[in-house]
Design brief:
It contains three helices and seven strands; from the N terminus they run βααββββββα. With 166 residues, the protein is α+β, with helices and mostly antiparallel strands.
Length: 166
């Protein structure tokens, strides 16, 4: 997928108190994805993971009742996987069957493209800590990119909670 440098992109970095293997698994194991996918108040009701180059996962996040309770489906089609280092995927807004769907028809704000190229880079910091840098490409407006970044931050807060030991 070709990216347009005139578009607005998101760059997000987070350090987790977890070994790289655990952070990696949080992205590819269905039960772990269900624990964090979706911003605060949203739940992940479906995570059919096909994590391999050329594979496509189908995920669904459900809005809380106060935001309409709507289901938002996405596919993640993977490319360039380097285990415990990086992977790329193209996020597409879809219906429950994985067929492409216009994000604005789903109530997603203007400026969010139908397809978003994502790159995830992992770095082992030692002492059981892992840094991840996530990049999202192609938002039409700064507002749409900022909204995505806020949602991503909330998702990563939920992911961080997975690694907290009681």
């Amino acid at each position: 997928m070709k990216t347009d440098l005139q578009k607005h992109n998101v760059v997000y970095t987070r350090v987790f108190k977890a070994p790289i293997e655990e952070v990696w698994k949080a992205w590819i194991e269905p039960e772990k994805v269900k624990m964090w996918w979706g911003p605060t108040g949203f739940t992940c009701t479906l995570a059919e993971m096909d994590f391999r180059e050329g594979g496509t996962s189908l995920v669904c996040m459900r809005a809380p009742v106060e935001f309409g309770g709507q289901d938002f489906y996405n596919t993640w089609t993977y490319q360039n996987i380097k285990p415990y280092e990086s992977f790329e995927y193209i996020l597409k807004f879809t219906d429950k069957d994985g067929k492409p769907h216009d994000p604005q028809e789903m109530g997603i704000p203007p400026g969010v493209p139908k397809e978003v190229l994502n790159t995830n880079q992992f770095k082992d910091l030692g002492n059981g800590k892992t840094e991840i840098t996530i990049k999202e490409f192609g938002y039409a407006t700064e507002e749409a990119a900022e909204l995505s970044k806020q949602g991503l931050d909330q998702c990563m807060d939920k992911m961080a909670a997975i690694f907290v030991k009681p």
